[in-house]
Amino acid sequence: MSQIDKPRILIVDDDEAQRSAMSQLLAGWGYETTTAFDGRNALEALSDFPADVVLTDLNMPNLDGAGLLAELHKSPSPPPTIILTAFGSADKAIEMVRESGAFWYLEKPAQPKALRAILERAVAQAKLVRHSQRLERQLSSRGVLGGLVAQSESMRRVFALLEQAAPTKATMLIGGETGTGKEVTARAIHDLSPRRASPFLAMNCAALPDTLIESELFGHEKGAFTGAAERRAGYFELANGGTLLLDEIGEMPIATQAKLLRVLEERKIRRLGGSREIDTDVRIVAATNRDLREGIAKGTFREDLYFRLNVFEVTLPPLRDRREDIPLIAAALLDGLNKRHECRVTGLSPEVEKLFSEYAWTGNVRELRNVLERAVILAGNGLIRPEHLPPGFAGLPNRTVESTGSEVTLRAGVTVDEAERQLILMTVRHTGGNRGRAAELLGLSVKTLFNKLKQYGEPQDGQTEP
Length: 466
Known about the structure:
Largest sheet: 5 strands, parallel
Mean pLDDT: 85
Oligomer: single chain
Strand content: 5-15%
Radius of gyration: 28 Å
Number of domains: 4
CATH architecture of the largest domain: 3-Layer(aba) Sandwich
Shape: globular
Strand order of the largest sheet: 2-1-3-4-5
CATH class of the largest domain: Alpha Beta
Structural class: alpha/beta
Helix content: 40-55%
């Protein structure tokens, strides 16, 4: 085995004799080693010696094993750490394995057979992590990152920023028109972060009445308000350790913005009606289709919250500005739609590819998905052809279709407002009254849909919310 292929082990112990003996033992097993006399010295050593595994004593001056482990885990990809503990300290070592992310622990004096087995497992894990990271980089270079697919230069720049920012703890702000894939991007950020094994939750700030949004975010105690029959955890508690997407953040009430800012700064929440503060460890990703700076100018969005959220800003380009991505996105969407509807559609006909490349896609990727879903159902198998597309799509003849309860034919001369009203009411009926689903299909926020229905005189009670 060449020197460059040898696994690297950093040995940390304040006892010089034990450091030396351990180094000789591991060198005999084929490992490359270096040593440090305490935690601070170990952190300095790592800058020149990127260890695959850290083998550390628990009790040391200056910075002990627990402190070293905490510092290591500030890195997005910390090396596996094995704790060596004196007799009687096993309980603390076990707690570090369970709570602090140590790989394993061994009591001193470590039995060579057990030590060698644990080291081999730790090195194997380090190699697996490196392989996974290398694979993610390779996939991103081919136009795939998490659930995102693209090959355009504008999205390559987005991918590069996501790869840099995702492994950190920084809050992120995702901008872009409706339907550009902000939630998919937030999910990719989560999946590329050290929090990937913890919950990812998304809350649409526009889908909740102002009176309920704080309860949804922070939870409430029993009796906190009329109807609060029992204690309930909010999104911050449910997403603890993971990532929380606050979608349509620009719709959040100004009073709630002040409370959110306090949570982001202090990392503590208090349930409505509660007196106890609860520690929270949640990464916030916010998304908006608005220019929040306009909201700041109008007094509807707090400037201090904007700067707190906007540590990393990612703006997703509209689909019309990256038309070269359409075939790749369509192929990815077809895979999922075939599975969902048990179809075997193989792709787009040349005529449809041309129509798609020239179409404006005002609803972006969401509109593309809805067009494809209808086409997949109608085609069933083979290629999607123009006759499978919606009537009037991209200038196609507005064919008369049989009434299925999910299509509407408009006469020439109808006003835009009336056309919009018919489309909205038809879509709400089509979804069985599920206004959250209807808003998604229409490319509207739920709040906008509710306001439209109120304008049309539709009843607001008994509605089905998302």
